[in-house]
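Here's my example:
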Amino acid sequence: MKLIIVKSQENGELDYDDLERHIKDNLPRPAIISLNIGSTMKGAIDSIKKTKAVFNKLKLTQFHIHCDAALDGGFLPLICDTPQHGFDMGIDSLAISLHKYLGVPMPTSIFLTRKNLLKSNVEDIIEDIFSVKDGIITALIWYAVNRQRTIPPGTEAKQQLEKAEYIHQKLRDISYPAWKNPHSNLVYFKKPSPEIIAKWKLASVEELSHIVLMQHVDYDIINEFFEDMKEYNQ
């Protein structure tokens, strides 16, 4: 199987022209493509619709679309006006990290795919969900999901996006280079001083750093961070 890395646009989203070029160069071979539903550094969301349009244009009929929705998959479905990335859009598999938005206290995730794509050599499936697997993880997921039922749907998700827009605008108000993709709780910006990076434990790659506005980040924390950035920018 040949691995091909497709270029991205300036905002981190898939470069669909480059995707088309690679598909065309490798026809009639089938394609397995992994789309980002919230890229790691910039929070970009690849378009399933545009990706399938490339496939249709080149008459590619054998393909598998996987969506990496590690963070955004936990909250985007709770907000009505966000891009859809469900199986009704024609994807074939989807992965979501449960230790991110849901806050399960240890790394865990779920992988969803179409039933017709599953193959199993196991004759007997043990019905007891606690069987030989990690029952603590299962219980923690149950708790996290049920906790969400006590909160009006989408409340925390909308608050995250509002906080991201708030700090994004504050940075722009002082003319500090900062960007935010639509429907993202992540703001990326020009890498600040080593002192700020160390204090706020900023994830940084080359000339960029980013912050992710999760549920525990309140406006006091955001404003303190902004004051540090403002002082650095003077």
Notes: The chain has six helices and eight strands. Helices lie at 16-25, 48-57, 135-148, 155-173, 194-200, 219-233.
